[in-house]
Design goal:
The protein is of the alpha/beta class. About 45% of the residues lie in helices and about 20% in strands. Helix 9 runs antiparallel to helix 10 (about 285-300). The protein starts with a strand and ends with a helix.
Length: about 650
Amino acid sequence: MISLDNLTVSYGGWTLFDNISFLINEKDRIGLVGKNGAGKTTLLRIIIGEQQPTEGAVTINGECTIGYLPQQMRVADTTTLKAETEKAFDEVLRLEAEIASLTAEIAERTDYESEEYETLLHRLNDAQDRYHILGGDTREADIEKTLLGLGFKRTDFDRATSEFSGGWRMRIELAKLLLRRPSIFLLDEPTNHLDIESIQWLEEYLRNYNGAVLLISHDRAFLDNVTTRTVELSLGHIYDYKVPYSKFVELRAERRAQQMAAYENQQRMIEKTEEFIEKFRYKPTKSNQVQSRIKQLERLERIEVEEEDLATLNIKFPPAPRSGQIVAEIKEVGKAFGQKRIFSDFTFTLERGQKIAFVGRNGEGKTTMARMIIGELEQTEGTIKLGANVNIGYYAQNQDDLMDGEFTVFDTLDRVAVGDIRTRLRDILGAFLFRGEDIDKKVKVLSGGERSRLAMARLMLEPYNLLVLDEPTNHMDMRSKDILKRALQKYDGTVILVSHDRDFLDGIVDRIYEFRDGGVKEYLGGIYYFLEKRKVESLQEIERKDTPAVAAPKENSTGKLSYEQKKEQEKLLRKLRKAVETIEAELAEIEEKIAAYDEKFATATEYNEADYAAYNDLKTQYDHQMHEWEKASYELEITENQ
């Protein structure tokens, strides 16, 4: 469908792409990956013709249509959400007018046997076929379904596009793109402005889409759920794997190991051959053998190990100064902007060392709550009380926009650093991949990922004990996110994370607060536990809507449960207690096996690979069962207290 042939892109003496080629087929699901600056966005712009390669060509099948979503774009401010979205159907509306005109002309004619009449019939038939293919019959339903899927509400449909924030405007463009149904989607970071629910909806849409998809994303879970092929851009070359991202990471490591082993074997052979040549070069009795080995080396096809990109982010947060046990106490907090109420009655206590996440659809109050905790916004009702010695480090969602574009990278830190740390600014910038001449670049010329890293570097200048991070991974590449994640896992302070990145949140937070429909709900567990529970609750909500009101059991006039309700609750309690007991028995059994191995290893005289593999499997099982036990125990506790 699209063929990229021997593409080279050079800037002066620097080569971004070096003779790369690959083919995009119908229904391909490709993840384009690589560190920031590897050329991913440049490659998309070359495919759509916005940029020309230094050498090589892009060949596009004549019938192929492309839908391109860049990272940033402008949206018209002169119309409503629905009217703007309907622009996706410009061709459908043109066809509609053409069909109406042709139908009227055919109805007036009586020359049924003429060539002109037959031509009109053919034109009408072609227009109707194209109209149906483009979804003309269902466009109203498709618009509604797409806008709702991307998080808009029906009440938004008649709002002016000028009222929406930048993130929501990107969603409008994404909606128009999806509704145009091109042969291939080229999507550059489509999840940056989406919440978790909208990301899941988009995943489902793209999985079932009839065309091809080529997307750039730093969201590991999104890539794994959508793509089946991974193309890596690294140091001017591409590596094509017919697998999703997580499997690609494994295969890339295996390929590198095999390549290194073959290279090292060949280097040893070359070294020994050269030693032989040098040793016997001047001995007449060995001249034939020497010449033979010289020719052998000349004919040898040397193995080249591809240059590996080892530049990674090296982050370690300063140790957190000790705060009080209670870091923040939020009681019955609510927020309204004029007549618009965002949420109300939010109560929770944040304790020292806890790591929690605020999740939910955009506009439900996550960032608003974060800004109220740091004192940037005033709550409408309720109280927010910070504990003793709490020192807050805040990373704003638009942090990169808050920096002065005219300052250099070094000046940006130098202006806020105080004391001895000013002598370590170059080391800190080096840890965030700003090296050499990079520190003299102006902020305005930095990429989105570079700005995010610079903003995060500013958080390193002072030891905080409460980090409030609002979408810290937007624009960060995979490696940067992984190392930031490990740094947060090791951080000994308290963390509030606002994020839609499921893979990033997994393993950091153990408590989720979902902002939804004007309220906030607490989930005691990790992000995937929350998503699992949220899915069940959504199904229950649907069932409640579909079930007649008389079927729902109610409390009697005294406020006590009815006999039938008591029976149902007792039945549920027995089931939950049984689940907890079963898991506890399994945990005890695994503990016994682990203890047996510990005893065996204590007296072992040699390493047994099979034993250690079995031992590690048991520890993995134990961790999984402990997680299941925590979930089951929590559900039992909640049910017992109802």
